[in-house]
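The instructor's notes for this session suggest beginning with a concrete chain rather than abstract definitions. Hand out the sequence below and ask the class to guess, before any prediction is shown, which regions might be ordered.
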Amino acid sequence: MNYNYNHNNSSTSPPSEDHHFDNDDEPRDPNASYHPIACSSCRCMHKKCDKKLPICSECLLRGRECIYNIPKKKGRIRGGKNKKKKPEQGLDSKTITSFQPSIPTTSTTTDTVISTAGKSTTCSPQIDLIRQRYAQRKDPYPVSNGDQDLELRKRLTSLIPTTLNNLLSENYSLYKQFLKRNTIDTYYNIISTGHPVVAKKVFEDFLFNDSQQQNTELMALVFSIQALVEQRFGRKERAVEDINISKQLLSSLFDKYDDFFVVCTFNYLSYYFAGEGDDSRARFYLNTVDHYFNDKALLDHEALSQEVKNLDKWKTVTKLSIDSQNFHSTDDDHFMCNRLSLIYRYATGRQMPDEYMTIARQQITSQNVISYLGLLDSVCSFLTLHNQTFSFTPEQRELSSITDAMVYHGSRMRILIEAGIRGHLIEVSANKIIDETMKPTFPMVPVALASVVAGACKVHLSIIRMIRVGKRVNGSDGIDYYEYVAKGLRALRILATRYGRVLKFCSIIMKEQEEVIEGKFTKSINSLEELASQTSVTTPPSHLQPILTNTLTSIPVHTSTTRFEELPSSYTTSSSSSSSSFSSPSPSFGDTHSTSQPPPLLFPSHQQQIIPNSAANAGNVSLNDPSVSELLAQICNSINMETANSQPFISNHVVSANCQLPASFVEMENHSQHFESNMQMSSTHGGVTYGTEVFMPSEELEQILDSFEHENVQYE
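After discussion, reveal the predicted structure:
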């Protein structure tokens, strides 16, 4: 397309199609600079353009991106004092000026902007348009609110001289190079977790070499990666823009399902939509990835390239993210089986062996919970070894540490709940999960861990509910659970700024957390006001002050449900069983005796570690992770307590554990020591141990360890 411009006294005018867009009849500001032709936005919208630099009035008013293309022929600008100046004065002859209200002006080469009108391929107009959008991209890292930045830019534009504007426009390319480098570093140091699907040199050549940008398959992958980077930093609008461009590019490559870059793009699109909570769309894109690997199912795992192995790991992570809200719900009986098998595949690249699957397929009960915990321990051992092997940067090592802790304690918490185990063990895991959220790198964790955090938050909310009704005392075990609720809310809010999935599935939890914190604050204010009003009242000596006691009637706690929101605590059981009778007053706070007796326990030697006799010695109980023997004893005690609590209270309020119990429980009571040894033997003779050992055939274990070493050498 040729343009004719006025030179000096020439009367030649632009073509007719530009006549509707150029607003040359209106007076010019003699102190402003103008471009020879209308901006591309006004031309597309059929609006008159005043061609003012760096942004025309129409684009400034509408908040649109203002792009000036460099004309092939140069002409004078009518009006203004700079008539004889070249329109590109102060700019490189191959630059364009791009302005977005919320970011600085961009510059790029016209070689990638000017459309290729002579091409006749089917998809070339769409691809060229997308490439043009890529070349004219705005700042992907806005540092302020868009409206605020727009107002600031209006003020600065009127103050900065034209020459300085041109200088900024020329040097913005340096800033753009920095943004590209930041994208590369974020992907390889954080997003990829040590498993990139494209070599770093290929990525760098594409971003820094314009000639490489003709690869449409790689361009679609780059935009999907850019979307994940923006999503991880919480720049949602920018991420949506990137993901839409990637989808548009894929529309012309949809039939190339066997192309590796295309399959990687499908996987990253699926992962992005899983983070947004759109599971149906995530499954749609992931089906193409599954089809790709089905064709390679007969190939030896070691024969696959390292990039294909990394894609397989990404597919596994995506599956862990889809439907992850089921983590803190016990409706899915096969959730833990599927979860452990996926974790094992991610860590080893193999299917879980039959020895593991035999245990994983069982429904979790109090009878097989030890075996299931042993399975979890072994799978997580492989995960830790894998993450230590492939963590090459400090960021990756810190994120791996958070991931290992959350995966283990989150899975253990879920297993114990399904088995009907209550109290101490679950609270230990919930506390450790929330503690991990206070680490500096937590905001960069993947979306799959959001459901783990939500599960821990539900445990703490259940404890708060018991504190409110007087069944527990906050701080009696040295832990402020209101503080843990606040930490949990902070963690969910951080994740909600990044992942739409959190707001979609955790909004009810966050609302209850806010109510708890607000209620605690209001209660504190009221307490201070009440204390201030009593300052004028003479306080009697301490030995004459009455002792406040809890006169609430003991109510048995039923633990048949396995949902977090109805979780009772083992402390609740102790307070119910050790409280006074209906006809007599309760003992004082310091009294360590009770008129009723607690239910007999299987292993009295561990009783104090599970159930304090009173609130006086409850403060000496700390939530430390138990040893193997303590774990066995606590689980057996919890089983006995749950059974005892399900029986009605008798007249003297003494519960017999042998009353209407199945024969197996009666035998456990009569032969407690024998039962404990049998439980320990069954966990070893059955091929499962709850410890650091890995129970699998030695040949397969050696193959897995050799593959770790081989893959690590490739990265080095």
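Then share the key points. The mean pLDDT is 68. Residues 500-533 form the longest helix (34 residues).
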